[in-house]
Amino acid sequence: MKSSRSRYQRPPRLAFNATPMVDVFFMLAIFYMLVTRFSSAEQVPMDLPRPEGSLAKVAHIPERVVINCRLADPAHSSPSSALYSVGPNQPESLATISDRLASLKRQSPDLKVIIRADRRLDYAPVRALMRVIAHHKIDMLNVVAHVAEGE
């Protein structure tokens, strides 16, 4: 004999389970926040040159190293004293950067280097850094200049 309960039970309802979609949304949000944090960390704040009539375009270069070249002490130093750093790292000597570039060149033969230099800095420290890069036979070198918005 059938029980009376089975007769009055409703059939199971189909429902939309939003839990996996919320999980994916939060994972994507965390990913984009971290990527934004890491990409902005390699750009040390500095006053970049603004050349007139520049045809410079923003390049997206894989396997790249960003070397920042800035004034040692903007308030008290001469324009020829520079600090060099790879990305957001602490300032290093040219010899240390040279060793680091040699190691990176061995790991990635198609290494590309981007130099970001403060415009208040003399050209001599930037040229010294370019010589170090040329010494390691790194063919792709970009020098960053400020490009106005909308150009």
Instruction: Count up the helices.
Output: 4
Number of strands: 4
Q: What's the architecture of the domain at 64-144, going by CATH?
A: 2-Layer Sandwich
Strand count, sense and barrel status of the largest sheet are: 4 strands, mixed
Give the DSSP E fraction (strand runs of 2 or more residues). Answer: 15-25%
Question: How would the global form be characterised?
Answer: elongated
CATH class of the domain at 64-144: Alpha Beta
Q: How would you classify the helix and strand content by structural class?
A: alpha/beta
At the fold tier of CATH, the topology name of the domain at 64-144 is Nucleotidyltransferase, domain 5
Rg over CA atoms, rounded to whole Å, is 27 Å
Q: What is the string of SSEs from the N terminus onward?
A: HHEEHEHE
Q: Could you estimate the helical fraction of the residues in percent? A: 25-40%
Overall mean pLDDT:
78
Stretches where pLDDT falls below 50 for ≥5 residues?
Answer: none
End-to-end span in angstroms? 83 Å
Main sheet: strand order: 2-1-3-4
List keywords for this structure.
single chain; 151 residues; alpha/beta; Nucleotidyltransferase, domain 5; four-stranded mixed beta sheet; 4 helices; 36% helix; 16% strand
